[in-house]
Amino acid sequence: MSLFAWKDRFAGEDSEERSRRFFVLEGITGITHLSLTSGAFLAGFVSMLGGSEQINGFIGVIPAIAAFFQLFSSLIYEGSAHRKRAIFRTALIYRILIAGLYLLPVALLPLGISLPVFMAMYMGAYAMNGLLAPAVSDWMVRLTPMAIRGQYFAGRERLAMLVSAVLTILLGFVLDHAKAGPRPAAGFLVVGGVLGVLSLLNLYSLKNVSEVDRGDAVRKYTLREVVSTPLASPNFRRMMVLFALWNLGLQVGAPFIPVYMVTRLDLSYTYMMVLTVVGTVARVSVTNMWGRLADRKSWFLAAKLSMGLLALVHFGWGFVNPGNQAVLAPLLFTANGFVWGGIGISIFNLQFLFAKSQGRILYLGTNAAVGGLFSLLSVQAGAWITKLLEGREVALLGLRFNNLQAVFLLSGLLLALCPLFITFFLETKAGEVERD
């Protein structure tokens, strides 16, 4: 029976199972929110507002940079025995900002301040998300026994990606239709309306998740303890190094891929959404496989394989040009979907293997803050490289690459270091992971 058939099954379900089903709805709305406020949608909107390639790339990595705010999450939630109300209030602010993300800047177009207003709202929204993420993740993990986490998170992500794929391709068609008309900004008003509906559904899902019995002592932490506690754990320090390396390799290239498609390859929104759906279908098709691999073998193996393959995908984008994009772009989108089916669940769960159950938000928040800091450094490096090489070409092995292709090659090389780090520095500590 479908995971959406809640009402018929609630009578026979316990509170935890019912809550896990509402977390499926939370995941569907949350992932679709991200899809509609990133990638080609984001790159097209920022370009319409007059943003340069460098500004576009920087805005694209704001969600990762805003993860720095997760550092303060434990200051808000760890000292409370009942977190649900505080989580809901933060989520309310976050979803209101997301709902107005396209609507308000479009309304302000005549005043010429749309781009800075959009950037402020975008940063504010994902700062709120940064405060939320560790607490919501911990809440969901506490409701999900270790034995079923792989399949549960895989199934949750599969449904979320399916819904996201349908909406993105439909809205991509809407944007293309509006772009061909006299009012190209009108398409984003429709997207904004969809974001508003999704915000209401997201808040409804959180409202219906049960308050969890934390089962550990409630205590308040100082900011110094928030930082020092995870650093005091040798194993978790290794996890933080992996996150730094991962974000360094990912964000130097990833934010510029949709920019490259919009500004250099000049692809239509509909075509880009079709490619996105192709990647999503690939991701949905293999997510259960990655979950089973993690449950039967290890999260280490799932992470190594998926990260290593993503390195090849990013490196491959360095060879895409207008002459071959009809062949390479679909192949790379399909491969990207395949590998993110593993990365999406493995990188999330790796943290929980080394984070202590008591005060776990401290570990998740500090780790995310490290990732956010390195994301900022990485996208700045990528923007600097694209600016330095603007109008120039880099010759390598008899081939010539433009500035954006160069950062894709660099991104692939850096990402290839991640599976090596897991093999030599994390997997050797597999016997010391948390078992809760």
Automatic annotation (TrEMBL):
The record's Gene3D superfamilies line, in alphabetical order, gives: MFS general substrate transporter like domains
Q: Which PANTHER family match?
A: INTEGRAL MEMBRANE TRANSPORT PROTEIN-RELATED, MAJOR FACILITATOR SUPERFAMILY (MFS) PROFILE DOMAIN-CONTAINING PROTEIN
Protein's UniProt keywords contain Electron transport: no
Q: Which organism is it from?
A: Anaerotalea alkaliphila
Keywords recorded for this protein, A-Z: Membrane, Transmembrane, Transmembrane helix
Protein name stated in the entry? MFS transporter
Q: Where are the transmembrane segments?
A: 21-46, 58-80, 92-113, 119-139, 159-178, 184-204, 241-262, 268-286, 298-320, 326-350, 362-386, 406-426
Recorded superkingdom: Bacteria
